[in-house]
């Protein structure tokens, strides 16, 4: 009789990254998933498809109970509201409780964050504080936090180790840096209870190879890859592709980013959940937080491939995958952009067992795979 799955709350699981994390949690065989999501930038359909992919992966002799355990319970709510978060933990008191939290829900557009700072600080910081407060109330002390490479700003050392100075240059990056500081202080306050891992995402791309789930933001995508993928379906033809600056100190003048397959990124969260139970990784914190050593169990890790690709290289990769002939114009730099964010992922490789199984071609193939299969995304846009 397999041991019962541990309940994991994934905030924002209906989103692009959250849905892939939920899928990898289910596929691991270890966890069941519950989420709180306000669907401000996602659709409920995505979660139904996550369950279907996981159920289809079950062995032929799987029972109805095995299949039911893969259903994701959805609490429609807003993580800036304590009462909305509280309802999840209260409901799960009678279902074995919440074993741990993966906190993903956030606003995440570098450019937009500079135009809407209050919205970004409220959604990204207040939500983190509310979540930690409710977790403490229900004595849930394990969390994996979705942080970001943007906490590094424009680092001198490339590839970037976790010990780099944290000097974010965008509002978005500052919300992630501040949230890491809050997590660290909370862990320092109760070192025998709290355990937290911050995962500094570089640039996720692609989608599950089935093409059933993918990146489907409401409105025009702010990020490069989903925009290129949607353009290949014929969208935004009149506006065309704008490349924000080609005068950066990089090989072809356009910004360099460390793109990793979203399935590799998602699996990194399952690796991190397992690592929360270990003590050794929290011993040498100075190598993993960028804050210097302390008594609490907070540790940050880079999730990237360790290979940088430029905007023009990614346009070419998507041209090959989609067959679409992208026409672009070079325009001015975008606020908050930095020349190069390429990870040194060796700490995560070593301590979490994190690896990137997919390459550039699979990222481009799978980013396109979802939009090719579902040109209108999860539902006809209202
Ligand atoms: C990449 C490059 C743009 C659109 C993302 C996430 C952020 C974080 C890091 C997790 C930049 C250029 C883009 C366009 C362009 N991930 N670009 N024309 O800014 O690196 O941030 O990854 O925390 O949440 O948003 O990604 O795809 O927006 O930009 O020239 O129409 O593509 O200037 O150089 P970014 P991006």
Summarize the structure in short.
With 382 residues, the protein is α/β, with parallel strands linked by helices. It has helices spanning 16-27, 45-56, 64-68, 82-92, 110-115, 117-137, 171-189, 224-231, 262-275, 286-289, 311-322, 346-351, 360-373; strands spanning 6-11, 31-37, 73-76, 100-103, 142-148, 195-201, 203-205, 241-244, 256-257, 259-261, 297-303, 309-310, 328-331, 340-341.
| Separation of the first and last Cα atoms | 46 Å
Number of strands: 14
Give the low-pLDDT segments.
Answer: none
Order of helices and strands: EHEHHEHEHHEHEEHEEEHHEEHEEHH
Radius of gyration: 20 Å
* Top CATH class: Alpha Beta
Q: Within the CATH hierarchy, at the fold level, what is the topology? A: Rossmann fold
Our count of helices gives: 13
CATH superfamily: NAD(P)-binding Rossmann-like Domain
As for the number of domains, it is 1
Main sheet strand line-up: 3-2-1-4-5-6-11
So, CATH architecture? 3-Layer(aba) Sandwich
Return the average pLDDT rounded to an integer. Answer: 94
Structural class: alpha/beta
Query: What is the helix content?
Result: 25-40%
How would you describe this structure to a colleague?
- The protein has 382 residues and is of the alpha/beta class.
- It contains 13 helices and 14 strands.
- It has a seven-stranded parallel β-sheet, sandwiched between helices.
- Helix 1 packs parallel to helix 2, helix 6 runs parallel beside helix 7 and helix 11 packs across helix 13.
- UDP-4-deoxy-4-formamido-beta-L-arabinopyranose binds next to helix 8 and strand 8.
């Amino acid at each position: 009789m397999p041991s019962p799955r541990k309940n994991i709350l994934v905030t924002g699981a209906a989103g692009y990254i959250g849905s892939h994390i939920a899928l990898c949690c289910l596929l691991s065989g270890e966890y069941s998933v519950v989420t709180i999501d306000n669907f401000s930038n996602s659709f409920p359909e995505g979660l139904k498809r996550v369950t279907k992919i996981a159920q289809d992966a079950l062995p032929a002799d799987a029972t109805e109970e095995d299949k039911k355990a893969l259903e994701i319970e959805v609490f429609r709510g807003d993580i800036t509201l304590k009462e909305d978060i509280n309802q999840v933990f209260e409901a799960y008191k009678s279902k074995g409780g919440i074993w741990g939290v993966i906190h993903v829900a956030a606003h995440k557009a570098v450019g937009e964050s500079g135009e809407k700072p209050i919205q970004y600080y409220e959604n990204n910081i207040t939500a983190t504080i509310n979540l930690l407060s409710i977790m403490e109330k229900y004595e849930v002390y394990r969390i994996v936090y979705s942080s970001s490479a943007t906490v590094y700003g424009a680092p001198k050392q490339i590839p970037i180790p976790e010990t780099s100075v944290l000097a974010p240059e965008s509002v978005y990056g500052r919300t992630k840096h501040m949230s890491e500081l809050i997590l660290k202080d909370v862990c320092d306050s109760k070192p025998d209870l709290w355990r937290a891992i911050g995962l500094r995402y570089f640039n996720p791309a692609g989608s599950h190879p089935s093409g059933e789930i993918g990146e489907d933001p409401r409105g025009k995508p702010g990020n490069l890859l989903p925009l290129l993928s949607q353009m290949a379906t014929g969208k935004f033809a009149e506006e065309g592709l704008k490349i924000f600056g080609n005068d950066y100190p990089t090989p072809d003048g356009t910004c360099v980013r460390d793109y990793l397959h979203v399935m590799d990124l998602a699996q990194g969260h399952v690796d991190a959940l397992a690592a929360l139970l270990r003590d050794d990784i929290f011993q040498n914190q100075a190598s993993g937080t960028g804050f210097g050593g302390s008594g609490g169990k907070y540790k940050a890790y880079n999730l990237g491939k360790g290979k940088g690709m430029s905007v023009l290289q990614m346009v070419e990769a998507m041209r090959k995958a989609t067959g679409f002939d992208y026409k672009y114009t070079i325009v001015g730099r975008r606020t908050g952009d930095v020349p190069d964010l390429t990870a040194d992922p060796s700490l995560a490789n070593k301590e979490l067992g994190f690896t990137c199984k997919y390459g550039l071609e699979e990222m481009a193939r799978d980013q396109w795979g979802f939009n090719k299969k579902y040109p209108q995304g999860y539902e006809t846009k209202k």
